[in-house]
Structure formats: structure tokens, C-alpha cells
Amino acid sequence: MVTVKAIMDGYGEKFKEEFPDLDALIAIEATPKQQKMLSAPLPAMGRYKRAVSFLEDVTSGRNLGLKRFQVITEYFIALADELTKYKGVNKSKKVVCGLTKKQKNNIRTIATSDNDIVRAETLERFTNHDTAAAGDYIKLLIGHKLPELESMMEGVHFAATSEDVMGNVFGMIGNELVYGHFVPKILDFCDHLMNYAAAFDAMNKGVSIPGFTHDQAAEPHTLTKKFGNRVASIEKLLRTLITDGEFQPFSGKMGGAIGNLTTHYAAYPDINWFEFSENFVEELGLDYSSMTDQSTSYVVEAQILTTLGNIMTQMHKVTEDFVDLASSPGQLFTKKKKEGSKGSSIMPNKSNAWGMEGAQFMFEFARDKMLSYARLLPSYPHEGNMGRSYALRNLGDVFMDAFIGIGRVIREMNSYVPNFDSIGEFFDKYPGMAGSSIQTILKREGIEGDAYRELQKISMNPDGTYANRDQFQNRLENAVAEMGLSQGAKAEIMGTMNPENLVLASHSRAKFELRGIKIRFEEYRHMLTQYAPKETING
Fold it and tell me: Which of 168, 206, 212, 239 has the fewest CB atoms within 10 Å distance of its CB?
């Protein structure tokens, strides 16, 4: 009969150290942090929050609110600088000019707290417009804290529309999210694949694994080449985001209500407002175009998100393939047994790739959201509407699943080790994987008859089952003996029975290519330093 002691003993020594008796376990009480996680409406905000908590500093309402204040105040300062040097027909009617260095510093720090965000949101109850409320709040603070500038308050948000603020805010958040966090995670994922494959090779038990087409044994392969194919595909996609040695930044905008700078030119027609706008937007680290509607066209964002969506497909594929390699009946990779773990709630005979199975769905969710955003963002009526506002405020949700999934794959793959016995048994069970190579050697040697049909007879039994190693080798030796081949050709053909001999060229080439990719990855990390803190860039 099962007892409490038997159940607790099954969890292992570490459990016993932490919980010497059942009373110690039952005495646990939920902390306020745990209670908050349990009440979260979404798993990314609760169970998986540890993987995405950094997004509080990136895609949160706090970061959006602070960046909105930043764009509003920087525009006020840039406008003052432009009008200070202005000597045109309306030079006596400058809405703002002549700010001192101290005044600029005061303006930049005039609204930098959660309290400021909440106060601006309080004004929104009356303006019914969030960015208008934020602009008014800055005006009120200038009048209150910097009374000497009260006469220049109209320089705040002068001639601009809300998208001249929020388009830049969303662009800055996009840069932070994608280039400060997500692309470094992609590089970490690729580094993990390359390191895992290198560790496989370093075990010196052979580099071969089976390759599959149509879910059947095809030809000998290597893990370095298999993983390398995905890494190379991801690197190629990342390369499309790079122009002139820099990652393509998200877009920004300064163009007034419909992108024509109409109100700017109405007030000061002899200023080159397009040049001003370009300088302002690029100073924020964003991509500028003079050809916009109320918002940027979002074709840049569509390109970035489409590329990242395609990268998610590659990450999903490599995860799915590895789970298949580790699954029965082949079980070419085995999950290390962890003391106390259970592979199933009912079946004690198995262990499952929980983390990677879940990650496959996460990668699919993230990919579909990215591709959906790439399709929807540029699809607005005429010169624009507010649909993009909700979508871009929700940008963190688009990436949450991917961040969670990447961590799960890396952690769980590290719990698997190669099962070299099963790999050897697989090659013995399906020796016909050498058949395509033997066929080409026979064609090269110019044998009489159809080499393909000869190998088909050797590889497949009359009932359609595949020949095992003994069957294949005996038939091959008899066939080769009757073909009048040279001893060198015979030895060459029989040597294909060792899969290691068939992967030398591809394995060597894969290692060569991956060395180059590693160098480029370091270059990419260097390009990303402008977007992310050092600990993110260096993993």
C-alpha cells in the first residue's frame, strides 16, 4: 500500500532536505508576489512572467508614457533651436526660441515619473485624447515650473498631430524590443544550436545521425549540418534587416495631420520643414520618410515583422525536428533522468519533451501574430485611422510567446544527451540510407543495367519492407562481385556502409560555414549595442 513516506521519498534527497516532513510542505503560504501571479489573466503575466518581466521596461504603459513626454519635450527644444536661427519673413513672431542650456535640461526632466503619467491620464478624462492631454500637461508644467517660458508654451506640440508624437514613440519602443531584446535572443538561440552540435561532435563517438525525407530514413546526416541549416537560414534572414552596416530601425514621422507639413508651412513658409523633420526623426534613432500619411506607411515595420515571422518558422522547425529525433521508437536523444521527476501523471514508462512541445505552439503563435501585424499595420483607410494605436500598444504581446519559447527550448534541449546506441541501431536497421551514394558510384563505373533498380532490389525485401544490415550487406556483396568492378571501386562501395564516410564533405562544409556565421553574429551583436544594455548584448 502506498504511504505518505513512499510518495515523499520518490521526490529525492533535495526534496527531503527542503521538506523533512509533510508539515513543512503544508506550512507553505502564498506570498503576495505569488498571489499576484496566480491571479494574472494570462499565463505570460503569471506562470511564465519570469521569462518576460523585462518587458515592463519596454512595452509597458510606463515606458510608453515616459517616451511620449520625451518626444514632446524634444520636439519643443528642436523647434526652439530651429526658430532661434530663423531670419525669415516672420522672424518677429517666433512661438518659441532662445532656450538656454539650463532651460533645455529643465524641460527634458520636467516629466519623468509615474506620477506625471497618471496626472496626464487624469487630464485625458477631460480631453478624451491621450496625446493631447500629455501635451497640455507639459504646457501646464512649463507654465508652473518655468514661468519665464509661459509665453512660449504654444511651442509645445506646435503644428503637430498626435501621430507626430506616437509614431515616434512606437518606433522607439519597436527598436528597443526587437533590437535590444529579441534579435539578441535569436542570436542566443542560434549559438545554443551550434554549441549543442559541437558538443555532440566532441564526444568522439561519430558525427552521423540519420537524415529523413517524407518522415522516412533518407541519407546519413550530421547534427552540425542539420542545425547549421536552420542557423544559416536565420542568419540569412537577419542579413536582410541590415543596411550600410546597421540594422534597419523602425520608422518615425513628423509631418502633421496627413503627412504634408501643411500647418508648419502655413506658419513659417520659408523654413525647410522636411529637412527639420528628417533631422528630428533620425535623432530619435528612427527611419525617416518625407512620404507619409497621418502615420508612417508601416512598410518598414511590415518588412521587419515578416522577416522575424519567417525566423520563427525556422525556430519552430528545428524544435519540432529535435522532439521527433528524441521520441520513440528511435529515441536518438535521451532525456537525462532527474531525481523526483515524473514523465507522465499515469505512464511511468516514458518521459516527454514538455518544454519543447509547448514552445512549438509558442513559436507558431508568435509567428502568426508577427505576420498578421505585417499585413494589418499598412492597411488603413485613406490617410489613416486609430487602429494602429491599439495594435502597437499591444506589441509586447506579439513577442511574449517567442521569448518564453526560446528559453524553454534551450533549457530542455540541454537536458537531452545523444543515444549513440540507438543511432547505431538505426543505421543497422536502415542500411539502405547508403543506397543513393552506392548508386552514383555504380553509374560512375559504367555498370551494365540500371543502377537504381539494382539498389532497389538490394534495399527492399519482396514484401516491401526495408532490408536490415545483414540482408543489405549480403545482397550488396553478391551484386558487386558479379559486376566486374575494380578492387578500389568495391572497397569504395563497401565503405559506404559506414555512415561516417558519407558525411565528411557536408560536415566539413557545415563547420566552415558556421565559423563564418559566428563571426557575423559577433558583428551583429556589435551593431546592437546602441539598442540594448551590455548584459543583453552579451547574453
Answer: 239
SS3 content of the chain, % helix, strand, coil (to 5): 65, 5, 30
Radius of gyration of the chain, Cα coordinates, nearest whole angstrom: 32
Picking from 117, 139, 158, the residue at the C-terminal end of a domain is 158
Q: Which cell numbers in the block locate residue 364? A: 507558431
Q: 170 lies in which domain range?
A: 164-256+299-334+350-419+507-537
Helix (H) or strand (E) segment spanning residue 418: strand 416-418
- Tens of pLDDT, residue by residue over 397-451, are 999 999 999 999 999 999 999 999 999 999 999 999 999 999 999 999 999 999 9
* Mean pLDDT value across residues 370-396: 93
Contact present, 174 and 531 (Cβ < 8 Å): no
Residue-wise over 352-366: b if at least 16 C-beta within 10 A, else e?
bbebbebbbebbbbb
Mean pLDDT, rounded, for 373-393: 92
C-alpha cell at 433: 540510407
Cis bond before residue 329 (omega within 30° of 0) = yes
Q: Is there a domain that residue 283 lies in?
A: no
- The Cα–Cα gap between 126 and 389 comes to 20
Number of domains in the chain: 4
Q: Residues 153, 49: one domain? A: no
What pLDDT score was predicted for residue 330? 87
Tell whether 368 and 312 lie within a shared domain.
yes
Question: Do 221 and 180 reside in the same domain of the chain?
Answer: yes
Q: What backbone phi and psi angles, to 5 degrees, belong to 289?
A: -140, 135
